[in-house]
Amino acid sequence: MAGRNPPRARIEPGFEDAPPSGRANIAAQRTVASAPASRRGKEGKQAKRKATRRSGFSGLLRFASYWTLVLGIWGFIAVAGMFVWYGAKLPQSSSWQIPDRPPNVRIVSVDGELIANRGLTGGETVSLEEMSPYIPMAVIAIEDRRFHSHFGIDPFGIARAMISNLMAGHLVQGGSTLTQQLAKNLFLEPRRDLERKVQEAIIAVWLDQKFTKDEILELYLNRVYFGSGAYGVDAASRRYFNKSARDVNLAEAALLAGLLKAPSALSPARNPKGAEERAQVVLHAMRRAGFVNDREVATALSMEARKAKHYWSGSQHYVADLVMKQLPELIGEVRHDVIVDTTIDLDLQKKAGTLIRSSIDDQGDKLKISQGALVSMDGTGAIRALVGGAEYADSQFNRAVDAKRQPGSAFKPLVYLAAIESGLNPDSVRVDRPVAIGAWKPENYDRKYRGPVTLSEALSLSLNTIAAQMIGEAGTNKVIQTAERLGIRSKLARNASIALGTSEVSLLELTAAYAPFANGGYLAAPFVIKRVTSQDGKVLYERNPAAAAQVVDPVAVGMMNQMLERVVEEGTGKAAHMDGWQVAGKTGTTQNFRDALFVGYTANLITGVWYGNDDGEPSRKVTGGGLPANTFAEFMKDAHEGVPLAELPGFYLPKTVAVIPTPRPGGGIDSLLRPGPQPGTPVAANQGGARSSANDQVRKPLSSMDGAPRPGAGLGDSPNGQKKRKNLIELLLGG
After folding, report:
1. Which DSSP category does 648 fall into?
2. In 100-171, which ranges are continuous DSSP H helix?
3. What is the pLDDT of residue 125?
4. What is the pTM of this model?
5. Class for domain 121-301, per CATH?
6. Do 121-301 and 357-534+543-639 share a fold?
7. Could you give the residue numbers annotated as active site?
8. For residue 540, which phi and psi values (nearest 5 degrees)?
9. 229: how many CB neighbours lie within 10 A of its CB?
10. pLDDT number for residue 706
């Protein structure tokens, strides 16, 4: 029929082409069947392409998985072989032992205060329980957060470090654990190669199996390098904060932990800003690890960065050097940690160092001096303070011990002692006039001549002509023998000019040579080490000297003290005067003002001071009676604060005033035999006794004072401790 659609072809169902099931499939077939042939062909091609793509992706996945597995197996075999190969080069693990930590020498003052730690580490071993808990927390947070969970090596940490380094294109992060770092420090050389890394990992696993985590952490913290010569947390704490690792706070612990990344570059002694920035990173890491809270972090961050002191700054390190120089002679090679008890009074040591340094800082440019030194000892020879230079950090050369320089007129007391022992006394008269001994023609400092003078006056004015006459009368050999008897060990030239101090000596031995005048005539060999003990208290050395030898007769001691006290009271050493104390001493100035010295003493301390230049350049007219005497007085005033008064030993009554007074009732001749002035008797001028004070304070004999130095039994006193009475003949003859 016209207008009707042609009849549709009937599609018979067939079993081969039947869809799996469902009406949806029947509808789809009808749709496909009703579509044009071209469209059905295009869709067929797309379907084939998709099927091919799906099969290609799955094949690639299967291929990748297969070869990944293969490569992984071969990689494992290669790594295992590498470990076996490099591990075979290590000794048998049964022979592995933790090497001993280099021994530390703990040097302490007479009161037990730390002077310095010496040894390769620069600090003592501190247990994990003793040290500040912030230190291990900070180190774990920034260096090895999984320290307590890994088995010596941290695969996750290694993978993280590799990814970070690949992304950055250079080394920015390390994957070593604390255990690996300890293994490297204990057993391996600091090489950067594959062999060392493999051996490091092997040893790290062994360490983790053999020791607890706390033991590994303690070993690590006591040996790792923190920069500026400090090995271990205690050395670093004292180096940067001047305190023990036991007392470190959170901010300081963070700074220490931050140094481990680059100890030398981040040392606060060199780079305080960089060290502080790294410490802030550590603090935030500790917060993320849950070791500290926000308030603690805020408090630590509020602390200002400060530059650490110079490396081993402080005059006490001159003492430490001297101790380390003498120690092997006393105990041999130091194999274990030891404690050295010294004679040093740390307060006096610091005072002396500050005085020398401030004098150079304040007046060095003006006076053209660059260095100074000081030695102070008691009557037994025990060194109480020793300063070898203006600043140890700048120069470690010890000018008090190792430098030998001309003492100038400070040597004259030994010349006068030789003359007195030859029969002269302070009231002996000589004429101040031009003198010629061969070709040598000494002149006085002011180039003036005073005519007849007593020896006492000549020494107080430091007259060179009289000193030359003294050596001429006593003889050069006699002077040298006297000097050696008092402890001078330097070789003295056998010529008359030694009367003016032209032979070089050290400040230490010159100061010790004055000690017999202060202690009653006994030799005082200087020493600084009293005792050496091991960590467990075993005594390795203890000073137990025999009684000191008497090297100067008590009568000569009295004469010398009378003359040397006059030097301070009215002569060239006036600047060394101390109110209320008998002070004796002598100035020394060498040719062209190259060296300026003052050596003086009380009944308690003998102190020598030197100023000058290492290269021998002249100063700007600095004399021994100037800066050295001023430094002496300032130091000795502090040293004698609160110390009971004591009079100098010996006795001498000048003949010119040794008159018999008019007898008074109740007085009689016995009044002359008492040590002090009595009512109604004239007082001899400058008898070596105490000056009267407002409350008439009386000095006690040295031997009666608790804590006073006693070089030998009695120091010339009578057995019952009382001053021996003089008879009239002795008084009149100056005995």
Report:
1. P
2. 134-143, 155-168
3. 87
4. 0.71
5. mainly alpha
6. no
7. 143, 409
8. -95, -25
9. 17
10. 40
